[in-house]
Amino acid sequence: MIERGHAPxxxxxxxxxxxxxxxxxxxxRCLDSLADDAAGxxxxxxxxxxxxxxxxxxxxxxxxxxxxxxxxxxxxxxxxAVNLVAQRTDAPWLVAANADVWLEPGALERLRAxxxxxxxxxxxxxxxxxxxxxxxxxxxxxxxxxxxLLLLTQAMRVSARARRRLRMAGAWEPAPGExxxxxxxxxxxxxxxxxxxxxxxxxxxxxxxxxxxxxxRLRERGWLIRWQPDAIAHHVHSAAAxxxxxxxxxxxxxxxxxxLWMLRRRGELATRTAALAGxxxxxxxxxxxxxxxxxxxxxTRRARVRAELRGQMLGLAPRARLELxxxxxxxxx
Length: 333
Known about the structure:
- It contains 13 helices and eleven strands.
- By secondary structure, the protein is of the alpha/beta class.
- α1 (24-39) links the parallel β2 and β3 (43-49).
- α10 runs antiparallel to α11 and α10 packs parallel to α12 (296-313).
- The two termini are 19 Å apart.
- The strands form two sheets. The chain has a nine-stranded mixed sheet, sandwiched between helices. Strands 8-9 form a two-stranded antiparallel sheet.
């Protein structure tokens, strides 16, 4: 493992762990947005590059010498890469960041102020804006049998309560500082003692589901998770993952990670029941898509639904098969 960069800012209150893989241009934009916080001594920025071949490492070493560059000998994935930075630093606040996120001025301090306002807050996340300017739904419910059944019965079509429970766009947005179930881990600030209390990210989760799992454990230990919409970050969704997997393969990967999470945290009965409901729902969507014709858009939609169907059906497979599939994807990346 090679490390290059400045001497760590030991007095910085916030350590930012940016996890990078083949998103050179976006990584530069991310680091540019953190430059003022680094220069002001508020943030100690680390970049963990998971084997980029697009010049990302060279970019950091040459243009952002104020950041510490870490180059592991293998692709650690997201959570383990953040854990590595956490093990080498001791600031009271820790940020986990994708390289495809960049901040509006003042966002980092707004997140810290929100978390510092209540000693029970273990994590806080910003409003994530997608490229079209819309707000990404980053606060979500945990996967459950109830959620799967609501989707299967299309309850959200007739029930505002169901739409809110599913955290659907246009039906629910948490108030500033409101506690939420879990946050998308594209950019989150965590209280160090809370992160340490739950043992950090699960080292066995390579990619996807790690944010959901750490939030589950934070809540189990009594920590609050909050959303701060006044802190704005821009997000190019799945910029790295979409290179590793084409769209439908990514859907399958996410489904496998979610099923394994449910098996571990909710048990086999809940996992199989939710997967069965999801399989029925995807089957009905596929049948409906056939009636919509065979144009290019209809074919694209059908391919996506087929991938969703395969993903849900995998929830009925033995745990060992799911673990093998996830390991195979990790080794091929």
